[in-house]
Design goal:
This protein has 114 residues and is an all-alpha fold. It contains 3 helices and no strands. The radius of gyration is 22 Å and the shape is rod-shaped. The two termini are 29 Å apart.
Length: 114
C-alpha cells in the first residue's frame, strides 16, 4: 500500500513537468489503474463469499452425522462462514472507499492537465 501511495505522490508532484501528450497518457494510465483496481477488489470479495458457501456446505454434511462433537464442529463452521461473510462486506466497503479515492485522484490530475 505504501508503494501505491508513493507512486501517486510522485505522479502528483511531477505532473506539471510532463508535456501535454505525456499528461494525456498519464490520464489514460490512471483510468486503466482504476479499472484494474476495481476488478482485483471485486475478485477478492467474491472469494470470501465462495469460501463461506463452501464452509456452509461442509457444515450441513457434518450436521447430519451423529454425535455431539460433530454438531459442535458444525456450529463452529457456521460461525466461520459468517466471519468470512463479514470480511467480505468489509472488503466491499473498502473497495468503495478505494474507488472514491482513486476517482478523486484522477479528477485532480485531470484538472491539472486542462
Amino acid at each position: 500500500m505504501k508503494t501505491i501511495a508513493t507512486f501517486f505522490c510522485v505522479i502528483l508532484f511531477t505532473s506539471g513537468s510532463f508535456a501535454a501528450s505525456q499528461c494525456a497518457q498519464l490520464k489514460e494510465e490512471l483510468k486503466a489503474l482504476q479499472t484494474a483496481q476495481q476488478q482485483i477488489v471485486a475478485s477478492l470479495v467474491n472469494n470470501h463469499e465462495t469460501f463461506a458457501s463452501s464452509i456452509e456446505e461442509y457444515s450441513s454434511v457434518v450436521a447430519t452425522a451423529k454425535g455431539p462433537a460433530v454438531k459442535a464442529v458444525s456450529a463452529q463452521m457456521d460461525e466461520s462462514a459468517q466471519a468470512f461473510r463479514t470480511r467480505g462486506i468489509q472488503g466491499k466497503k473498502m473497495a468503495v472507499k478505494l474507488n472514491a479515492a482513486t476517482g478523486d485522484l484522477l479528477a485532480r490530475v485531470a484538472s491539472c492537465l486542462k
